[in-house]
Design goal:
This protein is an alpha/beta fold. The chain is 38% helix and 24% strand. The two termini are 27 Å apart.
Length: 256
């Protein structure tokens, strides 16, 4: 049995009488790509926000490597190795791709945003930054100003910057949202590639992405866990098909 890296116990979040996340028990196994899916309003983003401590649970527990992190702050959990991709997206559009990754690496060193650091110190980070760009197929874009990057490549840059933080668990929030088919394929392949030796938990709408790369899928509906299992198990579950009634049910069946 693969060890569990992240676990929630009866995780619940209420907003003024509305229960957005209801008694969720989630287990993410080490080395897996695990997807959190569900119809709109199912509580996926709220769940993600609880895991990264942007929201405080009303009740329940969050365990990371067996340690209770329920009360910890976002900075504390990122130091432990839980990194959410958009937290460190390409926030400097007028810097080059290489410079953006280098800033991500500075965070890891604890010298964040010391822009007065000598060029020599920063140049030491170049080799590692270039390795990361190679890992996400962005080597040829190293000197491109980030604002000029195609949309799909910007997401690849976010992933490179996330990798620079040396995550033990990567949380990807809708990594293919708003992308055309070619970008979706590229980013999906990229996630598969960078998952080697890492654990990934992702919220994703695109069923063909989920069916292609995920080891396990948890389905939320109205804040509660509806089903969990492999893609084959989840997509043939009558309750899941009902939750995805309409276009999404066809999408669920049509993705191979």
């Amino acid at each position: 049995m693969t060890p569990v890296i992240l676990e929630t116990k009866n995780l619940t979040k209420e907003f003024k009488g509305f229960t957005a996340v209801n008694d969720v028990n989630l287990k993410v196994q080490r080395g897996h790509i695990h997807a959190l899916i569900g119809p709109n309003g199912a509580g996926k983003t709220t769940c993600f926000n609880l895991l990264t401590k942007f929201l405080i649970p009303t009740s329940g527990q969050i365990l990371f490597n067996g340690k209770d992190i329920t009360a910890e702050k976002p900075a504390q959990i990122s130091r432990q190795g839980i990194i959410r991709s958009f937290q460190i997206s390409a926030v400097f559009p007028h810097l080059t791709v290489l410079e953006n990754v280098r800033i991500g690496l500075q965070r890891k060193l604890g010298t964040s945003f010391h822009f007065w650091k000598s060029q020599k110190t920063l140049d030491q980070l170049n080799d590692r930054a270039m390795q990361l760009l190679a890992e996400v197929d962005l080597t040829e874009f190293a000197d491109t100003v980030t604002v000029d990057l195609p949309y799909g490549r910007k997401r690849a840059l976010e992933i490179a910057t996330t990798l620079g933080m040396e995550p033990e668990l990567m949380l990807l929030d809708e990594p293919t949202q708003g992308m055309g088919h070619e970008d979706v394929h590229r980013v999906t392949e990229l996630i598969k590639k960078v998952s080697a030796g890492r654990t990934i938990l992702m919220v994703e709408h695109n069923m063909s992405v989920v069916s292609g790369i995920c080891d396990k899928i948890s389905v939320l509906q109205r804040g509660a866990m509806l089903a969990e299992g492999t893609y084959a198990e989840v997509s043939s579950n009558p309750q899941v098909m009902e939750a995805y009634m309409g276009t999404s049910a066809a999408e669920l069946q049509g993705a191979h």
